[in-house]
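User: Here's a chain of 368 residues. Predict its fold as tokens.
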Amino acid sequence: MHVLVGGASGFIGRHLAKHLRDRGHKVTAISRFPGEDTVTWQQLYWNEGVPEDVNAIVNLTGNRFMNWNAWWDRNDLTVNSTSAMQEWEISRIKTAQMCVSYINERHKNGDPLDVYVQGSAYWYYHVNDETQNNIWTEFDMGGEADLISRLTNKWEESSKLPEDISTRKVIIRTGNVLSPESGVMKDYLVRSKCFIGGPIRKGGANPLNWVHMEDHLGIIEHALTNQNVDGILNSIAPELVDHAEFARLISAQTKRPNWYTPSRIKMDWTMGPERSKIMTESAWIQPERTLQTGYHFKFTNLSFAVPDLYAQISKGYLSNALYKDIRRFCFGYEDKVDDLRPQQKQKLERFTEFCFILAALGLLRTLF
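Assistant: Prediction complete.
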């Protein structure tokens, strides 16, 4: 199978590309920038330069919005934040529409794709006083309660295919993918290793909808290779567990105490109300339809997943993680994108770089 992967330079996309290649599939990335085994989004939209033997698309594209982009860009996802909303729409909705356009073009040319897998998120499901004790599955309707669920619904709707197209389509609503490299596990690990570990909310009773990286990649491959799989799948482990248990398991691995929980005021200020709500007020979700399609989770219990992932940590993990976070906070760099876009650095980034270089030269002059 030859698979186009949107977001192949991202956190999950890098792992997926390697996973598929290791299993004998051919992978071509879709990126903003040209490169080896890569097509650009413009080429995909106009169906120019795309390999003719491509028979599947996996679109995992989406900007990072759970953190500040840099010290000058809080990246607040609110209706009043035009730039953040535009980044959300361009990185998710516009790219999904480009995938649909390419699939339509292939259909018109008499060479339809076999399967289209579109990434989505568990944010689709509602969280409020009426639904806080509900257990949501793929058969439940959401996408209306608040800004983030409405945006997620719009994201999924933008990937809708015309009824006359034979291409099989799967939407995967992803939970918190656990990996020491990024996401919620990295946040808990770094805080714990810095002796400020603990659940993200007081008491830690809020649900943690998690999935091991291996299982998430397995579900995507399951959707690609099984002809009987279509519609909505939840990429979330079947175990219902909260953040308090997650913090306890992280503490057991790092041998550090859990004692700190950020206040809601601090969370709202640093993350904004929408992102803070995602972290502290999630819904309980089960992968009922994913299990019905025949996928078997390798990691069904968090107590097995956390030690397995912690064993992957190499020496110097904390210093490397802090360096990357500080580098992004100071300069706004994305690790993979930085080398590809020196010509696109903003004036403020260049000014910040200049100030840091001057400070470093001044320090060297003082010392020597």
